[in-house]
């Protein structure tokens, strides 16, 4: 199992090690690789919980019938993919790096997508949306934010984002433009369920004014979405804070 786990980490794959810590089969382990491959002597039925755990991206303890399971998730960090190399993109990339996320910023406009302007991104692409999305291949561990304010970039980027498994799709801009773009997506054949995935205007209501404040607002909403939280005040939460 250790060899397969090391290989998985070298390749940038994802998986979860499920260890029975109490109950039937205590001490046994099962590695479940994303896609279904299993390695180990743990109960095979544990594999049915693997996909949700891998998508959650966090270690957890499960109380199952007759067993207590510790789930240890392995995989690369979440990614933030920003289309539109504007000032907010640099602020988002800088903030996301503090979380340990990998950051990619793309723009078809070469004069904007420069290292002088976007210093904090791990990867910087000069590409139209179709090419950029093909290179990035966003998955369930990717947050996407569209910042260009230009339909020729925004609309194809949104279509591609909504066709992906990204856990967050944010669109900057006022409510009138938000609704106009949603209507354009409907006319292009995008389903209402898909359009409802757009977080727009993106960000939590923090009263943000500056570019760094706006980036904090957007990234906070993306983090809440990844953790399946509403982003409201902790004092209003009735469940355990770290549940």
Question: What's the quick description here?
Answer:
With 243 residues, the protein is an alpha/beta fold.
Q: What order do the strands of the largest sheet run in, or round the barrel if closed? A: 8-7-6-9-10-11
Give me the secondary-structure category: alpha/beta
Main sheet specs = 6 strands, parallel
Shape: globular
**On the 0-100 scale, what is the average pLDDT?**
94
Number of strands: 11
Helical residues, percent: 25-40%
Low-confidence segments, ≥5 residues, pLDDT <50?
A: none
Give me the strand/helix succession.
HEEEHEEEHEEHEHEHHEH
Euclidean distance between termini CA atoms:
29 Å
Q: With helices defined by DSSP (H or I, 4 residues minimum), what is the helix count?
A: 8
What's the arrangement of secondary structure elements?
Blueprint: H1 2-11, E1 15-23, E2 29-33, E3 38-40, H2 50-56, E4 60-64, E5 67-74, E6 79-83, H3 87-98, E7 102-107, E8 123-126, H4 129-136, E9 142-146, H5 151-162, E10 168-171, H6 175-187, H7 192-195, E11 198-199, H8 211-226
Parallel strand pairs: 6-7, 6-9, 7-8, 9-10, 10-11
Antiparallel strand pairs: 1-2, 1-5, 2-3, 4-5
Helix pairs in contact: 3-8
Task: Give an account of the 3D structure.
This protein is an alpha/beta fold. 34% of the residues lie in helices and 23% in strands. The protein has eight helices and eleven strands. The chain has helices at residues 2-11, 50-56, 87-98, 129-136, 151-162, 175-187, 192-195, 211-226, and strands at 15-23, 29-33, 38-40, 60-64, 67-74, 79-83, 102-107, 123-126, 142-146, 168-171, 198-199. A hairpin with a 4-residue loop joins strand 2 and strand 3. The radius of gyration is 20 Å and the shape is globular.
């Amino acid at each position: 199992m250790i060899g397969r786990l090391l290989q998985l980490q070298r390749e940038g794959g994802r998986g979860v090690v499920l260890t029975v810590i109490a109950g039937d089969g205590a001490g046994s382990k099962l590695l479940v690789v994303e896609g279904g491959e299993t390695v180990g002597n743990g109960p095979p039925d544990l594999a049915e919980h693997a996909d949700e755990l891998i998508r959650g991206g966090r270690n957890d303890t499960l109380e199952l019938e007759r067993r207590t399971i510790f789930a240890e998730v392995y995989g690369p960090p979440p990614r933030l993919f920003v289309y539109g190399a504007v000032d907010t993109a640099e602020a988002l990339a800088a903030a996301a790096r503090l979380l340990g996320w990998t950051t990619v910023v793309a723009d078809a406009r070469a004069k904007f997508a420069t290292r002088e302007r976007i210093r904090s991104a791990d990867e910087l692409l000069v590409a139209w949306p179709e090419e950029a999305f093909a290179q990035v291949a966003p998955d369930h561990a990717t947050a996407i934010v569209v910042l260009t304010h230009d339909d020729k970039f925004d609309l194809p980027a949104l279509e591609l984002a909504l066709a992906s498994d990204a856990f967050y799709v944010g669109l900057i801009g006022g409510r009138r433009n938000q609704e106009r773009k949603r209507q354009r997506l409907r006319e292009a054949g995008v389903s209402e369920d898909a359009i409802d995935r757009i977080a727009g205007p993106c960000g939590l209501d923090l009263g943000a004014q500056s570019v760094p404040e706006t980036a904090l607002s957007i990234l906070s909403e993306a983090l809440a979405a990844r953790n399946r939280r509403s982003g409201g005040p902790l004092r209003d939460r009735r469940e355990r804070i770290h549940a």
